[in-house]
Design a protein that fits this description.
By secondary structure, the chain is mainly beta. About 5% of the residues lie in helices and about 25% in strands. The protein has 5 helices and 51 strands. The strands form 13 sheets. Strands 1, 2, 3, 4, 5, 6, 7, 10, 14, 16, 18, 19 and 24 form a 13-stranded parallel β-sheet that branches. The protein starts with 18 loop residues before the first strand and ends with a helix.
Length: about 725
């Protein structure tokens, strides 16, 4: 059967002959692939080489899927994710895509070691060891110099645990909405003025600003390699900085930026003239009214004269109202210890938060840089600090089926079933299970649409069909094609197949495990295998994007009164302000549960002691999933189907009256009705509109589901 692989978000007519398409999961590097949306390549490097061999100079590629490949490229070549998050590149710390402009890409683990020194431009054989490709320069010979590097000219992009061109964070004034997390830079001893991690882009005008980026976990050992030679290096506007060590002498200009209280400031002391490379001074904010910061030297030498002689490496700066490092810098300037007024750098109401990064971001260590709605990052309904708008976080709690008991608004461990398990705060495949599918539900998430608006659902879970599973209730594969006794099989015309078990030989080419064979325009459809373990799986549809599912209620349709027997397969919400006890479980206020036994609930305290005098307490009935409705009854609230959210940042398209119905979504190759990328967070309250639908999630009670289908037990169990 032919597969449908042309549902791409990037417009085909905008690509042109110089731009090709790459699907890291389902593309093919066989002779029949041509890099069109219908027949994408499997790797960027193969697509590049194919175009060059045909006499075409590639200008870029549109990519999606989960990739890991070494690719150099050039300054003008653009790697564009099909939409925000459609492409996740994980270099594993070794492979790297470098020296390219990137957009809509999640780029993780691309060259993670900090090399000792590259005094000579590393262009040529040394490039893969020296740089990771999240920046650009005029040409390759200038890639070594910070004053010639324009930083990440692409946006939006998430760069995690990767090296960059001398750690140049920022770019030209068109750059924005970028996330830099745990980045590295390569030391360059030959000229300390052209290295070290710097912010902003070179040569920006006095009014140019780079807006809404996020920087996380940038320690001193990366920043302090050398000073910046850039005089117009900053102009950051509404950035968030968390766990970042700053060097005060660098020409960084911050406009309305947000600093978590785990940021630190280092500088040269004017009175002593000691360089920060030898005598660093660390400012530690202390909470409390009129609290005074403590200054700590990170070397054993403590002779620096401050307002007194430090004892044991610590010193206190006196002053009324000093609560953070900004106030401390003002005091240091007034005392004659720093050379420039800190107001030169911190402009237009910068905020120095009293909370750490974990109080601003939902989960920065897991690369979730959406911000908490109640954090200082939320300015107003349509304005915020950082690269991503405020978002709810639905955590995964603990290990085992009861690990989430007593917690509201999280994933419900007790609902997990099939091939899935919860372990140490992650949903994982249970390789000991013989099931070929699994699912887990969230508890009810209760919001007030009058006080906060959510544009939709962002799900950044990668499709891992090459690893033997896919986060969907739909299996994108067809039945296995097993070879005969001679290790041979006959394929169908114009069909994509994925190779499993062993090497395959087809059309005079060798295919490795997980390679994709495409039989386009092939007359001889015979395939052979290297060993008897080999087989093929036809790809039914390469575009299945379902990662998350959602259903919602605008109101409570019914209530269960105290003393009523609850009904199995019904989801209840304790929307009162008391604890209840059901089936030996303590249900806290605003926690939901799926009834598994026909029992009553009781009002109790936090320890589970039943309040025998309680009366007139009721809980909400949210969803009725009973397979069989007894005669004479009706399904409470009517039937509610799960609506799929598309993978990698798609949103639910919402009508004025609620979610679109299942009938409006085709089973395969569905095209979203809302744009689903970062542009959905717009001032008019909606994203891209088709047929008048908006992407606003305006319901009161929301529940999510994650479905997983095992598509290859060989890969999963190995």
């Amino acid at each position: 059967m032919a597969t449908n692989t042309n549902h791409w978000r990037q417009a085909r007519n905008a690509a042109g002959n110089q731009t090709f398409f790459v699907d890291w999961d389902n593309g093919s590097n066989g002779q029949q692939a041509d890099g069109t949306p219908e027949y994408p390549f499997a790797t960027i490097s193969h697509g590049w080489a194919t175009k060059v061999a045909a006499g075409v100079t590639p200008t870029g590629c549109v990519v999606r899927g989960h990739g890991n490949e070494a690719f150099v490229g050039n300054h003008s070549f653009q790697i564009i994710g099909d939409y925000w998050g459609a492409a996740v590149y994980d270099g594993g710390g070794v492979s790297q895509i470098i020296y390219c402009t990137m957009r809509n890409l999640i780029y993780l683990n691309g060259g993670t070691t900090i090399d000792t020194d590259y005094s000579v431009s590393p262009y040529g054989n040394n490039i893969p060891a020296a740089f990771a490709g999240c920046g650009r320069a005029n040409d390759a010979t200038y890639a070594s110099f910070a004053n010639s590097v324009f930083g990440v000219a692409s946006s939006p992009i998430l760069i995690g645990n990767s090296k960059m061109y001398r750690g140049c964070i920022g770019g030209n004034q068109s750059t924005g909405l970028n996330i830099y997390a745990k980045i590295k830079c390569t030391p360059y001893v030959a000229n300390q003025n052209t290295c070290g991690t710097t912010f902003g882009g070179y040569g920006l005008s006095a009014t140019a600003r780079i807006g809404n980026c996020s920087v996380y976990d940038l320690p001193l050992q990366v920043r302090a390699t050398g000073k910046s030679a850039q005089t117009n290096a900053g102009h950051m506007y509404r950035w968030i900085f968390g766990k970042v060590d700053f060097i005060y002498e660098h020409a960084d200009y911050f406009y309305q930026c947000l600093f978590a209280n785990d940021c630190r400031m280092f500088y040269v002391d004017k009175a002593s003239g000691q360089e920060y490379t030898n005598k660093r001074l660390l400012i530690i904010p202390v909470e409390g009214e009129n609290a005074e910061p403590t200054f700590v030297y990170d070397s054993a030498v403590t002779e620096l004269d401050f307002t007194g002689t430090p004892t044991g490496g610590t010193m206190t700066v006196t002053g009324v109202g000093i609560k953070n490092f900004y106030d401390a810098l003002v005091a240091l300037y007034a005392a004659g210890h720093v050379t420039l007024n800190p107001e030169t750098y911190f402009k237009e109401n910068c905020i120095f938060a009293e909370v750490p990064s974990t109080g601003i971001y939902n989960d920065p260590e897991k690369y979730d840089f959406t911000t908490k709605p109640d954090s200082p990052a939320h300015i107003s309904t349509y304005h915020y600090f950082g690269a991503l708008p405020p978002a709810l976080s639905i955590p995964i709690i603990g290990t085992g089926n009861s690990g989430s008991d007593g917690v509201a608004g999280c994933w419900d461990n007790r609902s997990i079933d099939g091939c899935l398990k919860v372990e140490n705060g992650y949903v994982k495949l249970d390789t000991a299970s013989q099931e070929t599918s699994g699912r887990i539900f969230s508890k009810i998430v209760k919001i007030d649409p009058l006080s906060v608006q959510y544009n939709g659902v962002f799900a950044s879970l990668a499709k891992r069909i090459k690893a033997g599973w896919i986060a969907s209730s739909i299996n994108p594969y067809d039945s296995h094609v097993t070879p005969d006794a001679n290790l041979a099989a006959t394929l169908s015309a114009s069909t994509f197949y994925i190779v499993k078990g062993s090497h395959a030989f087809f059309n005079d080419e060798t295919y490795n495990i997980n390679d994709v064979i495409f039989t386009r325009d092939i007359e001889n459809l015979a395939v052979t295998f290297e060993s008897a373990s080999g087989y093929l799986i036809p790809i039914k549809d390469a575009n299945i994007p379902d990662v998350l599912y959602c259903r919602c209620r605008s109101m409570v349709y019914a209530r269960a009164e105290l003393g009523d027997t609850l009904k199995p397969q019904v989801t209840y919400l304790n929307d009162g302000n008391s604890y209840i006890k059901f089936h030996n479980r303590i249900i806290v206020p605003n926690e939901s549960f799926i009834c598994d036994n026909a029992e009553q609930f009781y009002v109790c305290d936090a320890q589970g002691n039943v309040d025998s005098g309680a009366s007139d307490y009721a809980i909400a009935v949210i969803f009725d999933d009973r397979e069989t409705i007894p005669s004479g009854e009706e399904r409470i609230g009517g039937e509610t189907k799960w609506i799929p959210a598309q993978s990698f940042g798609e949103y639910f398209a919402m009508k004025n009256a609620g979610a679109i119905t299942e009938e409006e979504i085709t089973p395969f190759g569905n095209v979203p009705k809302a744009s689903g990328n970062y542009k959905c967070f717009t001032k008019n309250g909606g994203g891209g509109m088709v047929n008048g639908y908006k992407s606003i999630l305006n319901q009161n009670y929301i529940q999510f589901a994650l479905f997983v289908t095992v598509v290859s037990t060989i890969d999963v169990n190995s």
